[in-house]
Amino acid sequence: MGYSKFRRTKNRANLIAFSISGTKSKLIYRIKKIIMNVPKIVFRYSWIYDQNCKEWARISKKDIKSYPSSRKIVNYIKSVEKMWNKISGKILHELSKVTSLKWKSKIIHCYVVGKCVPFSDPLTLPLYEKKDYFIDVLIHELIHQLFSQNWKETRKAWKYIQRKYKNESHETQIHIPLHAVHSHIYMKFFNVERLERDFKAVSKIPDYRKSWEIVKRKGYEKIMQEFVRRI
Ligand SMILES: [Zn+2]
After folding, report:
1. What is the pLDDT of residue 152?
2. How far does residue 140's CA lie from ligand 1's centre (Å)?
């Protein structure tokens, strides 16, 4: 075989090897996506939405002078996005696995504003000084999202919670399974200190405090089991 023919053959072999590995990686990506089937959380800044939040903050007599600037929010988004992207796959997958509920949307937009009370739909979070706390609040709101995306599937389980904790407020009731699932996430991927920080931070709100106390007393595994068994 002449040198040039050898080189051509070698090049072709490389090309085939390359296309096989390309197909393989595409295939692995597709399999991963099918197995994981988790949504992408897309962080957004909306100036008009943020202005409305600023107005609500003013009406509810919050400190407006310290309201973060657009630039600060946009930079904050960039940095929490990086933190979140490292762990998002395993967290979203685990939430689905442990509750036996499917994520029903491919994309969830998460609006980040200067100040507000966080809520799950449209998913909206304010800036928190500690960025890992932002991640914890995001997971809390995503558990709400997963439950509300599966309201049909969870109907029986919620009826059971309402019956079992009939003397508790609605807010306490809905946060009992939620804090149980979140405890599992804290213990599997983070640590007990993060869980305790969450407990302390929401303890100012009596309904939230009560639900955490119930979860701690009964044990999160037991509450999760009782809830998931009825899905
Ligand atoms: Zn909540």
Report:
1. 96
2. 6
